[in-house]
Design brief:
Layout: H1 4-16, E1 18-26, E2 33-41, E3 46-53, H2 67-77, E4 87-90, E5 96-100, H3 114-132, H4 152-168, H5 174-184, E6 195-197, E7 206-209, E8 212-216, E9 223-225, H6 227-241, H7 244-258, H8 264-292, H9 298-318, H10 324-337, H11 342-345
Antiparallel strand pairs: 1-2, 2-3, 3-5, 4-5, 6-9, 7-8
Helix pairs in contact: 3-7, 4-8, 5-8, 6-7, 6-8, 8-9, 9-10
C-alpha cells in the first residue's frame, strides 16, 4: 500500500516542475499530515518545501476547518508584513498545500536556559502584534464572516465550533455543553479592534532561529475576531507545552506594539473558549478514530481529561456561577488524580488576574 509520501509525490513534482529527492514526515501541524520535501528542479537547484495534507481521518476532517481555508489565509497575507511561509501550490481537491519551508525549530518550552526562551517569547509577541496590526479590510478572505458588532467577535467562531460539536460529536461531555451555553450567553460586549486572529497561536505553532521567530504556522483555525482571543491561545498553549512564565512576561510587549490593552475580563473569557475548542477537537478526533481505527488517539486520550480539569477553573475565573460547575469540577479532579500519568504532571491554571 502506498503511503502519503508516495501519493503526494506527483502533486509536488507537477507543482514545482522538478523531482522529489527527499521526504520526511514531521509532527509539526499534527492535525494534518505534514511532510518536509526537498525538490530538485531542471537546473539542479534544490528547494526545501512543506506539504500539508488532509488524509480524511484527522481530528477535524469533514468540517469547514480545512486546508482550503488555510490556503485562503496564506494568499491573503502574502503581501502583508506577517511572518508566514509562502504558498506554492494547492491541490485541485483542496486537501493538500505546498508551501516554502521556513527555517528554524518549533521547540520552545524545553529550551534552556530560560533567558533564551525569554528572547524568543519577546520576538513572538512582536510577531503576533505584526499580525494584529494588519487591517482586515485589506485582506481577501473569501466568504469569511466579518463581525458587525462587538459580540460577533466571539460569537461567530464560537457558533462555528458548537456546530462542529453538534454535527460530529455523538455524546458531548457535560462540561463542554455547559461551557458552550455559558460562553454563548456571556459574549464580550466591547472590543478594541477587529483583526485576523491566528486562532491557534503560541508554543508549537511557530518556528524560531537565533532568538528570532521566522514563521507562524498552522493557520486552519484563523478567523476574524478579537486579538485577545490569540492572547488566550498563547496562555493556554504555553501552560500545556511549557514556557508559560516567559510568554506571560512578553505579553506587555505585545500590548505596546499592537496598541491594545490586556483586558482581564476578555482574556479570561477567551481562555475558557480556547479550552472548549480544544476539548471539542479531541472529542471529534476520538469519534473519527472509533469509526475508522486508523488514527493514533494517545494524544487526545491524554489531553481530554486534562482539559476537563482546566475548563471549570477557567470558567470560574471568567465569572461563571453555574450550579453544576462545582460537581463537574470535582469529578474532573478525581479523574485526574487517579490517572497514571496526568495525576503527577497536570497543573492548575495560573490565574490571569
Amino acid at each position: 500500500m502506498k503511503g502519503p509520501e508516495d501519493e503526494l509525490r506527483p502533486f509536488v513534482e507537477q507543482a514545482v516542475g522538478g523531482k522529489v529527492i527527499d521526504v520526511k514526515r514531521t509532527a509539526i501541524g499534527s492535525s494534518r499530515i505534514t511532510l518536509l520535501v526537498d525538490v530538485e528542479d531542471a537546473k539542479g537547484r534544490r528547494r526545501e518545501l512543506v506539504v500539508r495534507h488532509d488524509s480524511g481521518d484527522g481530528p477535524l476532517s469533514g468540517t469547514d476547518i480545512d486546508l482550503a481555508h488555510e490556503a485562503i489565509v496564506y494568499r491573503a497575507l502574502a503581501s502583508q508584513p506577517v511572518r508566514i511561509p509562502r504558498l506554492v501550490a494547492e491541490s485541485e481537491d483542496g486537501r493538500s498545500l505546498l508551501v516554502e519551508r521556513a527555517r528554524g525549530s518549533e521547540a520552545f518550552g524545553t529550551i534552556e536556559p530560560a533567558v533564551d526562551r525569554a528572547a524568543i517569547a519577546l520576538d513572538f509577541a512582536e510577531t503576533l502584534a505584526e499580525l494584529h496590526r494588519v487591517d482586515p479590510a485589506r485582506l481577501d478572505l473569501g466568504d469569511a464572516t466579518r463581525p458587525r458588532e462587538a459580540a460577533d467577535h466571539a460569537r461567530i467562531d464560537l457558533d462555528r465550533w458548537l456546530e462542529i460539536q453538534r454535527e460530529h460529536v455523538g455524546q458531548p461531555s457535560e462540561i463542554t455543553l455547559l461551557a458552550g451555553a455559558w460562553l454563548a450567553n456571556h459574549t464580550p460586549q466591547h472590543v478594541d479592534r477587529t483583526a485576523l486572529c491566528h486562532g491557534d497561536a503560541g508554543a508549537g505553532n511557530f518556528l524560531h532561529e537565533h532568538g528570532r521567530v521566522t514563521a507562524l504556522l498552522d493557520w486552519e483555525f484563523a478567523h476574524l475576531g478579537d486579538p485577545l482571543d490569540d492572547v488566550a491561545w498563547v496562555l493556554v498553549r504555553s501552560h500545556l507545552l511549557g514556557g508559560e512564565d516567559e510568554m506571560r512576561a512578553a505579553l506587555p510587549h505585545w500590548s505596546e506594539r499592537s496598541g491594545l490593552a490586556l483586558d482581564a475580563q476578555r482574556i479570561t473569557y477567551y481562555r475558557s473558549m480556547v479550552l472548549l475548542r480544544m476539548a471539542i477537537s479531541c472529542q471529534v478526533a476520538l469519534g473519527h478514530a472509533a469509526k475508522s481505527g486508523a488514527m493514533d488517539t494517545t494524544t487526545y486520550e491524554m489531553l481530554l481529561p486534562y482539559l476537563d480539569f482546566l475548563l471549570p477553573q477557567a470558567l470560574r475565573e471568567a465569572g461563571c456561577l453555574e450550579p453544576a460547575l462545582e460537581a463537574l469540577s470535582k469529578r474532573a479532579d478525581e479523574t485526574l488524580a487517579s490517572h497514571p500519568v496526568l495525576g503527577s504532571l497536570a497543573r492548575p491554571l495560573t490565574p490571569w488576574r
